[in-house]
Specification:
Four copies of one chain form a homotetramer. Chain A has three helices and four strands, in the order βααβββα. Chain A is an alpha+beta fold and 114 residues long. In chain A, a hairpin with a 4-residue loop joins β3 and β4. The longest helix of chain A is centred in the N-terminal third of the chain and has 20 residues. The termini of chain A are far apart. At the A-C interface, loops of A face loops of C.
């Protein structure tokens, strides 16, 4: 399955007074991610696709989202997007959000630089 | 079940180039509706609730939405919101969107004014 | 000058991690206010106006805004909007934001209820 | 003057029913651009800056914007941002938006590939 991955910096204006992403902003981020996935798969932008096919966007019929860990202002999150199923006249897009974590550098590696 | 009902005018800035609501905007509308539902039930605003209870918002864990008919720029939609289930430490809020339709005035009523 | 006045509740999703309105949201609020001003003046909604006049919105050429006091989550702000100047093919809209303050009830009035 | 330049794809959800950027979205884009400018100048993110300095964002006192040409869905715009003036306790940030135009490939260059 073709997966498009992109890193999104969580900006000040994406966040609410609790300092975490105001959840509707996730859906705007995912909508952009869908456009980028199709751009990568088809070799043309959503705009070009719409010009050529004379369609007016992907009508959305169903959304399901689970929020596992909140993203905070300043986080860099990796959004991975793919079409998980194609049917005759509809398809499912799946997005997955993961925070980029600083991985601690193992002691043995540090040692070599000492 | 307590249902809070409010009418929301779909504004220019809520809509996308297809002239219909950009779907993340629905979630912002629903989030406001949840706040208003709690305000009606508790007799205090979400702000007052947060001051008193020292909590920082309702963490959202799961969303499901089905889009049946698109709302367009200029529509007045009625959003009805209620808590469909309370559990020990979580609850479900259900929102329902309906367009206000002009109901045709029955001929017999018109006739009385003729 | 015709002034349209409306009260806007500052919602959770309008605010940033500092707990105050994320300023681009003011402009969305003002844009709605302009639509409501025209609706009141013309007796038709912006949608109806656009249908009739076959124009596609008010092109914006210039914006100036001064931010005097921040609005916070939970505030009710009164937005007063009016057209301050009409020229041949352009016009200026002025919006003014004021927080609704709870006015302390004078002691002599309280006394009458004691 | 340090100028930070970045390319922003105008997304579907940035645009209104006229197919052009809903102007409050520009201000969100510019706000991100200011954060990126400071990140480049200071070598730390806005988040890190706020952690260290214990300040809660840049209070905005004045905005002026002129809209010369509209940006449309699908456009790639270059946003150039710089601090045009520093005063004792305030500063001005200037953002400039330019569409990326496809430059026609000169005939003499095409010829070499024929």
């Amino acid at each position: 399955m073709l997966i498009n991955s992109r890193t999104v910096r969580i900006q000040w204006g994406d966040c609410d007074p609790a300092g975490i992403v105001f959840f509707p902003r996730y859906f705007a981020i995912f909508d952009d991610s869908t456009a980028m996935l199709f751009e990568r798969a088809l070799g043309m932008t959503k705009f070009e696709l719409m010009q050529r096919q004379k369609f007016s966007g992907f009508p959305l019929v169903d959304i399901r989202a689970r929020f596992l860990i909140p993203s905070r202002f300043g986080d860099d999150v990796v959004v991975e997007s793919g079409v998980s199923e194609f049917r005759r006249s509809s398809f499912d897009v799946r997005h997955r959000n993961g925070r980029i974590k600083g991985v601690p550098i193992p002691e043995e590696i540090r040692a070599k630089f000492a």
